[in-house]
Amino acid sequence: MIKLRLKRFGKKREASYRIIAINSLSRRDGLPLEELGYYNPRTKEVKLDEAGILKRLQQGAQPTDTVRHILEKANVLEKVSAKPAS
What we know:
This protein has 86 residues and is of the alpha+beta class. The protein has a single domain (2-82), classed as CATH 3.30.1320.10. The chain is built from 3 helices and 5 strands, in the order ββββαβαα. The protein has helices at 50-58, 65-73, 76-82; strands at residues 2-11, 14-23, 34-40, 45-48, 62-63. A 5-stranded mixed beta sheet has the order 4-3-2-1-5. β1 and β2 form a beta hairpin. The radius of gyration is 13 Å and the shape is globular.
């Protein structure tokens, strides 16, 4: 199963995260299938590749709780339910 999860990077105590699509059995910082965005919890900065995220969600990818919250705040999940399945 494909998951949308956070991948940690940055210095000690100054973590930032990339939002990635990865096999659910892979480790947290393993090789991702695709990088779909960026999240910095210190500055609350979020950058998302909405087209890539929508594509992965329509293919059946499951976001983790934290990623789901980030996508809800950016109104990306609403676009998935509004788009017709093709």
